[in-house]
Structure formats: C-alpha cells, structure tokens
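Technical annex B. To support the medicinal chemistry partners, we prepared a structural model of the target in complex with arginine, based solely on the information shown next.
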Amino acid sequence: MPKTALLCPPTYFDVLDMKNPYMLGESPVDKQKARAQWEALRRALETAGVQIETIEAVPGLEDMVFAANQVFVGYHEKIGKFIVPSNMRFSSRQREVAYYVEWFRARDYKVIEVDFGDEYLEGSGDLIWHPDRSRIYAGHAFRSTIGGIWHLEEAMQKLGIPVIALELIDERFYHLDTCFCPLNDDAVLIFPGAFAQASLDELHGYWQRVHEISEEEAAGFIANGIVANGHFLTPRVTGNLEKILAQEKLKPLVVETSEYEKSGGSCFCMKNFID
Ligand code: ARG
C-alpha cells in the first residue's frame, strides 16, 4: 500500500526548554547535523516507497519538525479523510496546531473540531491506529489526558471507531509512540514497563503477537520506528530487534536521529502519514 508522509523541515529546530526528560540541554543541537539527519530520513522514507509532502517551518516554533503531534489524521468511509486538531500541553507547541490545520484544510480534509476544555490530546504521538483501522490506541498520562481521550472517544463514536485508552507510567515514555509500535495487523512491538498493568493486560487482547523490547532499547527510541511497505525505519538495530523484524518480515533501515533525540523524538515523531 503506497503511503504519503507529511514532514516539516527543521529550519528553526532547537531545544529551548524541558518538555520531557530527554530535553536536558546538556549538549546543544548541531544544526547542520540535524538538517542532514532530516534529509536522510526523507530519503529513507522515499526508499521505502513513501511519497513526501512538506509543510513550511515557522520561525519561533522550534518543535514544529515533530509532525506527528499537531493533528490526528484519519479516514472513514462516511466522511472521507479527516483530522482532529490537537490541544497540546505546552503553549509553545499549541501555536503549531493552526499551521497544520490550515495545511490539511487546504487539501480538503474534514476538520473535526473537538472542544477539549482543560484537557489535552497530542495527535499521532499518543493516538495510533490499529493497522486495519478497526480501532485507535490512545496513550495518556504525561501529555494527553484521559479526559482528552474521552472527548476523542465521543467524536469517534459517531463514526463507530472504538478508542482504547492505555495508561503510561514512565515519564521517559511520555508519548505512546515511544513505547508502542504496530508492525502489522497481528503484531505489535512494545516496552512493557511503560504501561500500567491493567493497560498492558488489555492491549495483549488485541494482538496475536506482542514483541517486547528492553528498557535500554526503548530509551534508544526503537519503538519509535516507522513501518512502511516492508521496511522498518529505526534509529538503531539490536539483536533482539533484528529477530523481531525477521519474524515479521520487515527489513531494518537505519536512520540516525541523535539531534532529535535531544528533544525526545525520533523517526516516528517526525512524520504524519496522511493517507
Ligand atoms: N520536543 C518534543 C516534545 O516534547 C518532542 C515530540 C516528540 N513527538 C512524539 N510524537 N513523540 O513535544
């Protein structure tokens, strides 16, 4: 299945504050290296047969390069392509949302506006489709709130799409996409230590194969990989990951993301699949 990804160039990318435990500011972002890594990610996606669209970077929005968060993208036969704009926890990131919404609006996506009130919901960082689109997994605790997920659930109910809330308990794995990565309809890769026990038990019920990675692998953003047309884009490979990918017939494609890891992000965070 051909896929199209939306990316945002890292023109103004930087680490300026601490929104997650990776953003220590110990070593500054190497801007040249960041640009080269972004270009390499783009090329790796193209190698995997993914078409690339881009949105223009905006001065002052240093996290805008993380294109996964500003909107949740979906499709339903009743309404076609749609987005749900996020309510981001940090105000600097909240300002990114309008630019993305405009981008999608101009391309005829239906915009499902949800009134989140004081609750938060952070797009595809915390909301991940089952590959067959039968349900949405929704991480909450550090960024999205359970209240935000209830609002989404209400909106998705009208389309008959179930939302499965999963509670996160380790601040290093603050978005669902840092500890949970569907590989195909039957298999998912997770770091179990990131989940509350009840959520871990529940998620097992939806998959035939649950592949576990270690804390060290997860801290190295291995669960933040991108599955695309038989490839798995990942910032690093371990023996354990190799075995998992071989079993699921995926080919690893290594893309270094050291500069983005300083901001708590890697491959998956830097794109949004839009079809
Ligand atoms: N610095 C960004 C933040 O904390 C990183 C976002 C990573 N995105 C993701 N989908 N995990 O908001």
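Notes passed to the chemistry partners:
The chain has a mean pLDDT of 97.
The chain has one domain: 4-273.
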